[in-house]
Amino acid sequence: MAPFKRLRTGIARRLFPDRARFREPIRDAAGRRAAWFDFLFVDFGVLRFFWKNRAQIAPRAWRMNQPYPGDIAWAARHGLRTIVTARHDPRHGGHALVAEACQRYGLAYETFPLFSREAPSREALLGASAFFAKIAQPVLLHCKSGADRAGLLSALYLLVVEGVSVREARKQLSARFLHFSASRTGILDALFEAYLAAHPDETVPFLDWVAKDYDPAVLTQDFRHRPFWDFLERSLLRRE
Predict the structure, then answer these.
(1) Which terminus of the chain is less hemmed in, N or C, by CB atoms within 10 Å?
(2) Are 66 and 43 in contact (CB under 8 A)?
(3) Residue 44 and residue 40: Cα distance in Å, rounded?
(4) Do 235 and 2 meet the contact criterion of CB atoms below 8 Å apart?
(5) Which residues have a Cβ under 8 Å from the Cβ of 188 and sit 6 or more positions away?
(6) Who's near 94: CB < 8 A, 6+ residues apart?
(7) Are 180 and 98 contacting, i.e. CB atoms less than 8 angstroms apart?
């Protein structure tokens, strides 16, 4: 673990020995202050005050990085109905603040947990259709940085809701959103590359291929990354 990360983790543990509290609703002013401090300085939300990494990906779908409560107000003003987080661990102040803001503005708050440096499970990929069918739209999809998990979730949305091609959907994993395919997060690109290698004409639907032929273990075994890009992503950009 890098020295700065050890320091940051140590400070967080001293200030909030039980970050699990952020899974629960904010109950008082002290809880709100704790959530804001954790969000801004432990989760590095202060870096996302002006940089939102936000884009409209379809007529009824947007993507961005971890929202501020003000971003939830923006979503409500623009007619969005559901906020979807791809972050798998709710033990951070941003979760509590977004949950509170969604309740205040009447938006649903859903979780579709993904990992940025692991091959997606078959179950997660196959669950995308049912998930998007059940939630109210328009939607805002996010993760921490808005680059990797939000990119994969956006690609899945375009595939199962909009019916676009895999070649088009995979563009959501792009340097435009600060996704680096040469780092460990490139395992997400490898998912779509494996499909296109098997079906370059895309005559077999992507989820059919996932159900019958996709093997996360093989994808992981075959994937290669470049250590420099891991350093850039994890140590300098503070990715999750």
Answers:
(1) N
(2) yes
(3) 5
(4) yes
(5) 116, 120, 148, 151, 152, 173, 179
(6) 35, 38, 39, 43, 45, 66, 67
(7) no
Please state, in angstroms and rounded to a whole number, the distance separating the CA atoms of residues 86 and 95: 11
Closest C-alpha to 64, from 141, 154, 158: 141
Residue 1: pLDDT band with limits 50, 70, 90: very low
The fraction of the chain above a pLDDT of 90, given in percent, is 78
Say yes or no: domain 3-114+121-236 is CATH 3.90.190.10. yes
CA distance 138 to 232: 34
Above 60 in pLDDT, residue 115?
yes
- CB atoms under 10 Å from CB of 119, counted, come to 22
Determine the distance from the C-alpha atom of residue 32 to the mean position of all C-alpha atoms in its chain, rounded to a whole number.
24
Q: Which two tokens stand for residue 146?
A: 């808005």
Q: Is the pTM of this model over 0.85?
A: yes
* Joined tokens for residue 10: 């140590």
Half-sphere exposure of 6 (CA within 13 A, CB side): 3
Hey, how many other C-beta atoms are within 10 angstroms of the C-beta on 43? Answer: 22
